[in-house]
Write a structure and sequence with these properties.
Helix content: over 70%
Radius of gyration: 18 Å
Order of helices and strands: HHHHHHHHH
Distance between the termini: 50 Å
Number of helices: 9
Number of strands: 0
Length: 231
Amino acid sequence: MLLVSILAAAIVPGIALLAYFYWKDRYDAEPVSMVLKMFLTGVLIVVPIMIVQRGLMIWWGESPFTFSFIISAGVEEFFKWFVLYHIIYNHTEFDEPYDGIVYAVAVSLGFATLENVLYVFLEPATFGTLMMRALLPVSGHALFGVYMGYSLGKAKFSVGKSVKIHLWLALLLPLIWHGTYDFMLMTVPSSWIWLAVPFMLFLWFSGIRMVNSANAVSPFRFLKREEEIKS
């Protein structure tokens, strides 16, 4: 019974955050089946990511900078970006800028949820540590997904050179913030949490601004307003 409760504590934060960002889509909610597909894709990339990371650790070592920005953030964010670009970017369901955020958050939280479950089995886990992971690493992955998805949405509905610029930003922005988070975790003393909290608050503040900005340029917003006027 205790194991079930701990597993639930490991899984629920990812599901709750995914639901939150899904319901933030004001004008044209994505098919639940597609969102779940991308969530499961995030789960499936955990194993290849772990294999690549293990190989890089053997090859390059585990210095804080190398591990944070290349082995951890670099590999994880590249895999997320890769599957989003090849599965979702040209999909017909990707028809408004906010969709990039929904699908990127789904992939990120699929990854973070299985990572959390593995943590339960590989490390001594208490409700306290799982709550802390929900507030920091799991929440962090969701916000890195917001950064990635926002730029993917910008790329999708841009023209010319802006497309490539935003595609690169979709990879680089979450990589930089993710790497910074990991580097802080590895190099700052145990009191690092007092730095992590304002860092996460900043990510949440900027992430919500991106959510609102993406919704504000939805091509469906005018249709929604017409429906509200008619009703």
